């Protein structure tokens, strides 16, 4: 039995915001498992699940593949330094993403103009933004019925109203975390491949938001350094379930794109527990994995 140990140091700030929150964006005091998995995907250079270069069928298959791989991993999360919790206000613009907007109108046009592919469509949209094109000029390119729809669409995108709103967001300044990883996968997400990717990541690593950079070091934990059949009331990691003398959090444990999203109640120890629980011991630290570890 082997593990990987990740030491994560955030030099500036980070936020672990619950997906879908609106006016008040509170952060968890530690990165949930899907956030850590996202960092690993980034290190491996894997595409996102809304990649425009992939067809809808390929995206669905890719999501299923990610779910299977994610379920083979287990994480034990330790807060070494919670950092400083601060709150600020951020102005954001709310509107329709160009990607979704273009996809919607392109679906309407597909029956009328079978020769119009994505790149041609996006180029025409950009041309319509910058210059005026007559119905006949556009009709010669994509057909007159499609041209009428496109010109109406052009009026919409050029006069589209974006709304400005202010949200309150929490951030953690300069926190530090340790994460132990166990993998039951023998292929892409084996400990060997994860270790190699984290040592030489394909892309810059971040933890949480895309601009929340992280300094990372990773080491291998051999079976000789691990005793997985211990009992203790002095636990260093986040614990699944409810325990006294702990702060309680309900964290996401499934990936964002999964249809049935579930959360896990976890305990963040604030001292020794009142009773001993089963744990693993690694170099003097008693840890508990959140799932899939035996």
Report on this structure.
The protein is α+β, with helices and mostly antiparallel strands. It folds into 2 domains: 3-91 and 166-287, Alpha-Beta Plaits (2-Layer Sandwich), CATH 3.30.70.2660; 96-161. Helix content is 29%, strand content 30%. The strands form 4 sheets. It has a 4-stranded antiparallel beta sheet with strand order 4-7-1-8, covered by helices on one side. Strands 2, 3, 5 and 6 form a 4-stranded mixed beta sheet that branches. The chain has a 3-stranded antiparallel beta sheet with strand order 9-13-14, with no helix packed on it. Strand 13 (277-282) and strand 14 form a beta hairpin. The longest helix is centred in the N-terminal third of the chain and has 15 residues, at 56-70. The N and C termini lie close together (10 Å).
Numbering strands along the chain, what is their spatial order in the largest sheet?
4-7-1-8
Structural class label: alpha+beta
- Architecture (CATH level 2) name of the largest domain: 2-Layer Sandwich
> Alpha-carbon distance between the termini?
10 Å
Q: What portion of the residues fall into strands of 2 or more residues?
A: 25-35%
Shape category: elongated
């Amino acid at each position: 039995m082997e593990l990987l140990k990740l030491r994560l140091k955030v030099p500036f700030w980070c936020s672990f915001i619950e997906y879908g929150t609106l006016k008040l964006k509170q952060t968890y005091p530690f990165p949930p498992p899907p956030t850590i998995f996202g960092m690993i995907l980034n290190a491996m250079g894997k595409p996102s699940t809304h990649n425009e270069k992939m067809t809808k069928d390929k995206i669905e298959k890719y999501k299923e593949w990610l779910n299977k791989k994610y379920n083979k991993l287990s994480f034990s999360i330790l807060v070494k330094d919670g950092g400083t919790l601060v709150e600020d206000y951020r102005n954001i613009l709310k509107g329709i993403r160009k990607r979704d907007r273009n996809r919607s109108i392109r679906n309407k046009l597909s029956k009328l103009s079978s020769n119009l592919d994505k790149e041609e469509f996006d180029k025409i949209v950009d041309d319509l933004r910058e210059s005026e094109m007559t119905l006949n000029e556009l009709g010669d390119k994509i057909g007159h019925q499609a041209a009428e729809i496109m010109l109406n669409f052009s009026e919409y995108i050029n006069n589209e109203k974006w709304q400005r709103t202010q949200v309150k967001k929490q951030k953690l300044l300069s926190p530090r975390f340790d994460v132990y990883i166990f993998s039951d996968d023998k292929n892409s997400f084996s400990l060997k491949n994860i270790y190699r990717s984290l040592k030489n990541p394909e892309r810059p690593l971040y933890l949480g938001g895309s601009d929340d950079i992280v300094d990372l070091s990773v080491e291998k934990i051999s079976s000789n350094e691990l005793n997985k059949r211990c009992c203790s009331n002095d636990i260093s990691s986040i614990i699944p379930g409810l325990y006294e003398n702990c702060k309680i959090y309900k964290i996401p444990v499934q990936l964002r794109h999964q249809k049935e999203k579930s959360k896990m109640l976890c305990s963040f120890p604030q001292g020794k527990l009142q009773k001993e629980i089963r744990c693993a011991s690694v170099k003097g630290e008693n840890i508990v994995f959140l799932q899939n570890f035996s």
